[in-house]
Amino acid sequence: MAKHIQTIVKANLSSTAKTGGCGKCQTSCQSACKTSCTVGNQVCVK
Amino acid sequence: MLNLVYFKEYSIKKNVHSYRQGDLFIAHDVNSGSLHVLDEGAYDVIKAIEKLQEILETVNTEGICQVLRQTGKTVIAEELSEILDELEELRKEGTLFSAEAENVLPMYPEKPIVKAICLHVAHDCNLRCEYCFAGTGAFGGSRMMMDVETGKKGIDFVLESSGHRDHCEVDFFGGEPLLNFGLIKSLVEYGRKAGKDHGKTIKFTLTTNGVLLNDRIQQFLEQEEISVVLSLDGRPEVHDRMRPYADGRGSYAKVTPLIKQFAAKRPESSPYALGTYYYVRGTYTHFNLDFDRDVLHMADLGIKQISVEPVVASPKDAYSFQEGDLEKIHEAYDRLGEELLLRRAQDRDFNFFHFNIALDQGPCMIKRLSGCGAGHEYVAISPEGDLYPCHQFVGQEAYKLGSLYDENPHQLKDEVVKSFRSAHVYSKPLCRECWARFACSGGCHAANVSFTQSLTDVYTLGCELQKKRLEVAFYLKVKEIQQDLM
């Protein structure tokens, strides 16, 4: 186990540039805000 | 030992955000989306490399030691070596200092696939909210209601424009949409049937101020499984100052019991707005920079799904943010984060929408680059049947995309569609260099245009608020996972 750094979430976002884009996710602004872009507050529904 | 030659080409400032929040040192790897907790020594080393990149062309161990000593740190060779080893391990693994994402741009079919509409069923309102971007309901035009023919055409439009997408979204918006409840009932019935005929499902949502949310309407929303966004700003005096009736009386006393009653019907509501959900949504302004108290007020009312957002206002408005407000807003987000942790531990948890962060289960890169989809995947429809990129652009002639009454309503104005499609993260100079770029997706188009008159220049105060929210969101995520591991 590492002594100085603890990894909390291992993700591979970059790779989804090639695999993503299905468009099934909800329109972000509809969900709870209406005055800000909240894509980062969503989940992928794929 | 960390490969320091790598940092000749690689910018830490742009690709790794390391910061202190509460009692933690956190590093967010922008391109992989990974999250790490550091000890103070590791944090200092990353910051030292970042500093060296600003002042020198090369990064080496000697330089790191020098920067550390200049900042009053004691350098212990063995410890530095351990840290550099661990950093290298993570670099090789691709979870820290990971390679910049390829500039893959979102690809779109020539004809826009519109899957979501915002139906402005009423351009009138029973409140006169000070900060209303709809000009107290009328969007700069005359006060009017959408008729049933236009509403049905709107539903047909989204079903026909959504191509192979089998889920469409229809939001009833205003003004105050419940002023036209009869139309909403008709359109839900029509939409269910028309959706079936097209082999599609329509997800309905409603955004309301709550004034007319009587038992009959609540029952209808429950029965039809319509998701609802309800407006409440928080403490009575805060809410009433900004959300009065036309005669100046505050609306808190009327709407709060109704909103509480409705929220209680949906205890399992998804924080990520999945399925049938509710959110209670407020706006904070210069007048309540301690808006964390408003969020907690709502939580104390028993409301579990809360979204409170900064006002977007012209500097000439008294309630707009002023110089010096930013620090207070940051402090409010910090306090809110700590209070959330406390309540989580006491099993009095609630959800704050802007602290949602799914990381490894979040949206794909394509979605993050393209943003909200306004102007090509999402359009707003005025009571007259005019089409606009989103609800905030309604009434702005320069952004009009067409009309439901055009010979071919699907032929959206090409130059407007193109301008919105091309306003992605990489087209915005400030975003390209920002560590928050894949979480914020370039911000809100309407806010950007409102402040810079451009889709590709950003509203920088909004950027600062977004970055702070992310910092707290990451912190809460770390705490949540650490708690689960205990």
From TrEMBL, chain A:
InterPro entries named in the record: Six-Cys_pep_SCIFF
One Pfam family in the UniProt entry: SCIFF
Protein's recorded name: Six-cysteine ranthipeptide SCIFF
Organism for this UniProt entry: Desulfosporosinus nitroreducens
From TrEMBL, chain B:
Cofactors named for this entry: [4Fe-4S] cluster
CDD domains: Radical_SAM, SPASM_CteB-like
Pfam family, one: Fer4_12
Keyword Glycosyltransferase carried by entry: no
Domain Radical SAM core: 111-351
InterPro entries: 4Fe4S-binding_SPASM_dom, Aldolase_TIM, MoaA_NifB_PqqE_Fe-S-bd_CS, rSAM, rSAM_sf, SCIFF_rSAM_maturase, SPASM_CteB-like, Sulphatase_maturase_rSAM
Highest taxon listed in the record's lineage: Bacteria
GO molecular function: 4 iron, 4 sulfur cluster binding; metal ion binding; oxidoreductase activity
Key word 4Fe-4S present: yes
Record key words, sorted: 4Fe-4S, Iron, Iron-sulfur, Metal-binding, S-adenosyl-L-methionine
Protein name per Swiss-Prot or TrEMBL: Radical SAM core domain-containing protein
Species annotation: Desulfosporosinus lacus DSM 15449
